[in-house]
Design a protein that fits this description.
Layout (H helix, E strand, L loop, with lengths): L10 H4 L2 H8 L3 H12 L3 H8 L3 H8 L8 H10 L19 H8 L5 H12 L2 H4 L14 H15 L7 H21 L4 H24 L3 H18 L2 H15 L4 H12 L8 H17 L3 H16 L16 H14 L3 H12 L7 H17 L3 H15 L6 H13 L6 H11 L1
Helix pairs in contact: 3-5, 4-5, 10-12, 11-12, 12-13, 12-14, 13-14, 14-15, 14-16, 15-16, 16-17, 16-18, 17-18, 18-19, 18-20, 19-20, 20-21, 20-22, 21-22, 21-23
Length: 436
Amino acid sequence: MTYEPPTALPRALLGDSEVQRALTEHDFGTIFRIARERAGISYSKIAAECDIKPDRVGTLARGQGRITTFEKIAQIADALRIPGGMVGLATRSWEADDATAVTSRTENGPHVHRRTLLQAATSTGLAATLPALHRPDAPRRITHAHIDRLRERTARLRRLDEVLGGGDTYRVYLGEVMHTKGLLRQASFTDDTRRRLTALLAEQAQQAGWAAFDGGRMHEATTLYEESRAFAEDAQDSDLYGNSLAFLAYRTLPDDRRTAVTVAQGSCATITTRTPATVRALLYERHAWACAVDGQASRAEAALTAAREALDTAQDDEPQPDWSAWVDHTELDIMTGRCWTELRRPLRAVPFLTKGLGQYSDDHARDKALYLSWLADAYLNAGEVEQAAETTGRSLQLATGVASSRPRQRLAPLLERLRPHADVSVVRELLGQVAG
């Protein structure tokens, strides 16, 4: 029989909407409070099983402080018998023998779609790529080999972004940033290993910043991008430095288009003959996006052409950093369609978006929902109201349950633009579904 800790939450409690909401937000203080009030589990037992100081448990339960480290979240999940899927973790080792896990995967609730996506991705190999729950123990003196293992872990954690939104991944990525900062403060190393570890920190800060941006944490995103730029500069890594500028441009764009274009142009200025093809393509396409949003059609088209040339001329044996390896011709087709949509050129936008979306599985729900919103926008610009409404409906369906603020931000104005066409049956049905 599988060991059942004295702090295991009752099965019925895991189905409670308040508990599910707290777990989604990693608000473990609320979970501790509910465990004591509604299940009679004392703070002292929670402290013992979770390896947290008793006064710290009480402080968290009063809403003061947060649990942010990946290891501690996993430890709490095991101690309280919270299925991994409910807190953004892989399936826990004890779940196979625990009926609670089955219940959590089959219950009806607001987060079922997100967990279903994670399970679908797991069946295609995501589980095999996830890192171990515990980081490799750091030697007293940091070595190149240890940094390589940490970089591999960072790359594996990045795969979470393929199926989960920033609301789910932010604290995981932030935990990696804090761990690496701790190593730089406390460990010993040579000048070269310090530089390599600082470059890894720049990469991790960019990933955490992206998750913050995706989850609607704009202040945190800006701070992390600024930190990443400083770390990349300290590490003398021009590729990561350029990418930090591209991220800052993306973040600045909604508030100050001209500044964003200038910053994005600065990111492209970091490109040299040694810059990997996918990095070049990534910086050029983000420059194109900034120009498109600012209405600069010719500059956007020139940047898109440069991005395509970078991918077309890539050498098969050229090493690409993991953080840019996802940039390919499909991604560039999507970005091209997005740019032409922003420039209100739907006849040019629709073919690129349709071609790119044809390569996207529904498992990548957040990204596909976003890209469908641009396709719907293009259709509406072209006067194709029925197709715009149908595409908006598909986007809304995919966006349900995804912990990202961006699909909602994209779809709200689309629905408003469709309202004047409520006499069209497909629009009327869509608006009725949203209202219901």
